[in-house]
Amino acid sequence: KVIIGERCQINDSVHIAAADSIVIGDDVLIASRVFITDLNHGSYSGEEHSHPDSICRERMLHTKPVLIESNVWLGEGVVVLPGVTIGKASIIGANSVVSRDIPANSIAVGNPARVIKRFDFQCGQWVAVDAK
Which UniProt keywords are given for this protein, alphabetically ordered (predicted)? Predict the structure, then answer.
């Protein structure tokens, strides 16, 4: 199922592939060429692995829900992978690949996407996050 909140803007060539659950909050802005999915064909980690000789389209679907909270902006060409939560009021930079959760009020970029700034409500500004 796909649930899309109120007042969302979804631009051209956006692909949403849901086998289980993708929830998009209110006031979300999704730029062009964004791909959001909650599924993988096969398993490639953990205890159960898909054999490389198996036919790709016949491999079991593995799903993990995706949650994009309210007031999020997904830039041009962003990819959101299964099992991810993007916290409210966050910004994902163009061509980033989101493979893990992004906290609320954050700016994340890259492949894999990593948080580079967080909004500091005390000073009212976006503040750089130290690289680790």
Answer: Acyltransferase, Repeat, Transferase
Q: Is 51 a catalytic residue?
A: yes
| CA 53 – CA 70 distance, rounded (Å) | 42
Name the active-site residue from 15, 49, 51, 62: 51
In this structure, is residue 34 part of a structural domain? yes
What the block records as the tokens of 108 is 């994340």
pTM over 0.90: yes
User: What average pLDDT does the structure give for the chain?
Assistant: 95
Per-residue model confidence (pLDDT) at position 59: 83
Domain count, the chain: 1
Report the distance separating Cα 6 and Cα 74, nearest Å: 16
How many Å from the N-terminal Cα to the C-terminal Cα in the chain?
37
